[in-house]
Write a structure and sequence with these properties.
The protein has about 950 residues and is mainly beta. The chain is built from 8 helices and 66 strands. It is about 10% helix and about 35% strand. The protein is globular, with a radius of gyration of 30 Å.
């Protein structure tokens, strides 16, 4: 019977993995963009304004820089998921010019500076875990004021755009194509009429798109392009293949010839990875190659028995007999240096191997995790080739490999540039940025102390040697001495947050984990300006490096913070004592290593702040702040899949506030599980959603014990459908909440802590609100561009909504105005009191603008139209009046506390306002009434001036 059950389980497991979701059609995406526009105009919340609170100093990933050739102080900077920014003062300040487009996800830009025409290739081309797809190719002929309808809408990700300098209507585009699915729409496309018509002139395979494209500076007819075969799945990434190659065109992209052959000298075959190109002239071309061919075992790797220190790889092929003969001192040194638990020392481990409880291979496996696979994979990596005959033959410019540049993830970089004024002056981009002054023979790092790692863009001034502008994972840097020193130009708020949280301090602080920029914390009301340059202390502080992940803060003591970096490397931080304690659960020797998600979930129990949950492929619980762990579940995933990316991991954890031990988990391979008894027993709960989707959130309700929400994300299948569900019976039955939402993968859902029917939702391009438990949704986008929303929180004391975006840092909006929703006719919120001051309207320090009252008037009306605002004194006489146009729903009006000159006679002589330096009169102490009158009625509120 057990064999039959095992067979049935394995069969259902295989069938489940086989039924992967289908990629979303481009037409559905376009329809959803139109739907979002309609929702934006009709939303009753469209006046709820979001304020960006930063932070800015760590910035986000830059993918391209384009500089005005006649004025190098003017530039456009494209951020992977943060949009397009313009500076005309050498990067001192920037203005976003693409926030009104359908997406701000970018792969490449090209600019005709004479006509101020911008071509924006949407969809990042770096193929990372959060390289978001675009909506096609966009064009603006008015410097970003408006954008065209998308072209090449099936492109997903665009590698490079070239504009013919002699005919700017002639454009050539390299389409990389989808990240996770095959596509016949990859290729090289050309237009000769400014984008009205397109022709595909080159196609490789449905798995090989085009990642780079470069033309000879003196002859646009001569161009080169690089195809890149890759196969990315949630569990595996093969970034190489036989279809990766270099092609050449001699007719401006109309026809192409493959020039990397076995006879050419450039690598061919299954190990050819991403290729980057730099063209000096029609004949001289550099190509940097992320070689995925394996390195040969060096003679120095062969150890003589009894000599040299032990390494992890030694145990992979070691026999039992050889292991038992190891010197105890040498084995103990290895075990201690590699962080084995105290109980695993030489004699104990040898006894385990002797009786068969462990093998030598288990010693190696004990140290294996996704991080070691990322950095230790023995591929050749970076190598630079040069052709001096137009691509007919290629020669490697250096001996061996260029180590320490790509590691095992050159798919994220593979960029090369050559100085237009010196053919031997070359730059290569990887984890560091490096420079060669001898045509690639020798190299020097030009990464400095204020330059972030992971480089993707570089502009070289053809008229001033050493003037370069670099874009990396930490923003923008400018150098005038060829990289010896750098200026950091990070004023745009473009942080790529994975997760955010808050504490209960007064005023409260906001925490966030960012892509490749660690974990930061700062006051929610910190001023995001340049005053810190003068004061010497940026208001936000970094508390963790790496890729910053989830954060939990002890509600009893906000100095105790739990956070970490990728693949479950978590710490307990005591900020007051400046102490970090590593707390990742460890498997037992001989047990299969735990699998940790890139974004490993953690959760402090609301029932006891000493109890911490952490998810691998199992759920772990600590009763003492992470010092000790117990696995309270079996494997809660489908068991993982063979590949080089951690998979079959937990992605979400939620515990009910109504009952300790009522816990839900979600996995990256589509499973949702529940325990009602603290892990003693578990049950899988299944809704009417496709198999194998990433469970982005499972959320136990704050308001009903038996209610739970689930969101799922098909991004890793290029399935952009909107999957949102709720259950009112612990997951036995489910109801879809996503049917009326525009198509976009869902990342997060939360309830309002005090309003049972109010939900907030974040997708890969927007945030939404529902006031009827998900029956209908409204868009929240006043002040926010179409950016990926990864996390949402509500600070319960202030009632502030916090939105963590992956591209534009953190936004906030106060939700007090929601109290007016649902009231009939016309409703007006209570007005906060203010203080009278003789300083209102006076000139501030150093000629700054002086203070003025800011009196927020919040009202709700069922009918749009004109609303009259009146301020009345205690005798009911009007002392201020104005009018504003309202929309149906929530509205805001800011009153500056002024009094009309005509109304001075309506004050008693001893209390009459005096004219301020700016010519205005301001309210003196007293009690006033503010009356609003609109099409839906009228309402009044008291205003106290103390």
């Amino acid at each position: 019977m057990k064999k039959i059950l095992s067979f049935l389980f394995i069969s259902s497991f295989i069938i489940s993995f086989a039924q992967n979701p289908a990629a979303t059609a481009a037409s559905e995406i376009q329809n959803s963009l139109e739907k979002m526009e309609q929702m934006a105009s009709s939303s009753p919340f469209k006046n709820l304004e979001f304020k960006n609170i930063g932070p800015t100093v760590m910035s986000g990933r830059v993918v391209d820089v384009d500089v005005n050739p006649t004025d190098p102080t003017e530039m456009l900077v494209a951020y992977a998921s943060g949009g397009l920014w313009h500076s005309n003062n050498n990067g001192t300040s920037f203005t976003p010019i693409m926030d009104n487009a359908g997406t701000i996800n970018l792969g490449d830009i090209a600019v005709d500076w004479n006509s101020k025409t911008i071509w924006a290739g949407t969809g990042e081309n770096n193929s990372s875990r959060s390289s978001y797809a675009g909506i096609g190719l966009l064009k603006s002929t008015d410097w970003g004021e408006t954008w065209s309808q998308p072209m090449l809408t099936d492109s997903h990700h665009i590698g490079r755009i070239l504009i013919d300098p002699k005919n700017t209507d002639h454009v050539v585009v390299a389409v990389t194509g989808p990240l996770y699915s095959t596509s016949e729409n990859r290729g090289i496309y050309t237009t000769k009429d400014g984008g009205s018509n397109w022709e595909k002139t080159l196609f490789a395979t449905d798995m090989a798109g085009f990642i780079d494209l470069a033309a000879a500076p003196e002859n646009f007819d001569i161009m080169y392009t690089a195809s890149w075969e890759k196969d990315r799945k949630a569990w595996n990434f093969d970034g190489d293949g036989t279809a990766s190659a270099i092609y050449k065109s001699t007719d401006a992209g109309q026809s192409w010839t493959k020039i990397t052959t076995e006879a050419s000298g450039f690598p061919v075959g299954t190990g050819v990875g991403r290729i980057g190109l730099a063209v000096y002239d029609a004949n001289t071309v550099y190509a940097i190659h992320d070689s995925q061919f394996r390195r040969p075992k060096e003679d120095s790797d062969v150890k003589t028995e009894g000599h040299q220190d032990l390494s992890k790889d030694d145990f992979k092929s070691m026999s039992k007999e050889s292991f038992l003969k190891l010197d105890d001192k040498k084995l103990n040194t290895f075990l201690k240096q590699n962080g084995f638990q105290e109980k695993y020392r030489a004699q104990n481990v040898k006894n385990m191997v002797r009786v068969g409880d462990a093998t030598p291979l288990d010693v190696a496996k004990y140290l294996e995790n996704a991080n070691t696979q990322l950095f230790d994979t023995p591929v050749k990596g970076a190598e630079l080739y040069r052709s001096n005959d137009g691509g007919k033959t290629w020669n490697k410019t250096h001996e061996g490999q260029i180590d320490g540049v790509f590691y095992s993830y050159g798919y994220y970089f593979a960029q090369v540039r050559v100085d237009p004024s010196d053919v031997s002056h070359v730059y290569a981009m990887g984890v560091p940025i490096i420079r060669s002054d001898d045509a690639g023979k020798t190299w020097k790092s030009i990464s400095k102390e204020n330059v972030h790692a992971d480089h993707h863009a570089l502009w070289i001034n053809p008229n001033k040697r050493g003037h370069i502008i670099n874009g990396n994972d930490g923003g923008l840097n400018i150098s005038y001495d060829d990289g010896e020193t750098w200026i950091k130009n990070n004023s745009p708020s473009v942080g790529q947050f994975y997760a955010i949280n808050y504490d209960m301090e007064q005023p409260y602080n906001v925490y966030g984990g960012l892509q490749d920029n660690g974990v930061w914390v700062g006051p929610h009301d910190a001023r995001e300006n340049r005053a810190w340059h003068q004061q010497g202390q940026y208001p936000w502080e970094t508390i963790m490096g790496g890729d910053g992940m989830q954060i939990q803060i002890d509600s009893r003591n906000s100095d105790i913070v739990y956070t970490g970096y990728q693949f479950g490397n978590y710490y307990r931080i005591d900020r007051e004592k400046e102490k970090q304690t590593y707390i990742q659960p460890r498997h037992e020797l001989g047990e299969s290593p735990y699998r940790f998600n890139w974004q490993t979930p953690i959760l402090l129990s609301s029932h006891n702040q000493d109890i911490l949950y952490l998810g691998s492929n199992k759920l772990h619980r600590s009763m003492n702040q992470g010092d000790d762990w117990t696995a309270i579940s079996p494997d809660l995933t489908q068991g993982g899949k063979e590949g080089n990316v951690a998979y079959g991991t937990l992605s979400s954890i939620s515990e009910s506030p109504f009952q300790f031990g009522l816990i839900y988990t979600g996995s990256d391979d589509g499973l949702v599980q529940i325990t009602k008894d603290s892990g003693a027993s578990w049950n899988a709960i299944k809704g009417d959603w496709p198999a194998n989707l990433w469970v982005s959130r499972v959320v136990a309700s704050l308001h009903k014990k038996d209610r739970v929400y689930v969101t799922l994300n098909g991004y890793r299948f290029d399935d952009f459908s909107t999957y949102v569900y709720t259950s009112d019976d612990y997951g036995k039955t489910w109801r879809s909440l996503g049917k009326t939402l525009p198509t976009s993968p869902v990342n997060v859902i939360i309830e309002h802590p005090k309003k049972e029917n109010t939900l907030f939702l974040g997708t890969d391009n927007a945030s939404y609100i529902s006031t009827d438990t998900g029956a209908s949704w409204n868009l929240l986008n006043n002040g926010m561009p179409p950016v990926a929303v990864h996390d949402i929180k509500i600070q319960p004391v202030s009632n502030d909504l916090l939105v963590g975006t992956h591209g534009r840092s953190i936004y906030t909006a106060n939700l007090d105005a929601l109290e007016l929703m649902g009231k009939s006719g016309f409703a007006f919120a209570k007005v906060n009191k203010i203080r009278a001051s003789s300083r209102y309207g006076s000139q501030g320090f150093m000629w700054s603008e002086g203070p003025e009252p800011k009196i927020e008037l919040t009202f709700y009306t069922e009918m749009a139209g004109k609303v009259k605002i009146e301020v009345l004194n205690e005798k009911g006489k009007t002392i201020y009046e104005d009018a504003t146009l309202s929309s149906n729903g929530i509205n805001f009006y800011r009153y500056n506390g002024t009094v009309g000159a005509y109304a001075l006679k309506r004050f008693d002589k001893e209390n009459r306002p005096e004219k301020a330096e700016n010519g205005n009169y301001y309210l003196p102490k007293g009690i006033y009434a503010i009356k609003l009158t609109g099409n839906s009625g009228s309402a009044s509120q008291e205003l106290i001036v103390e």
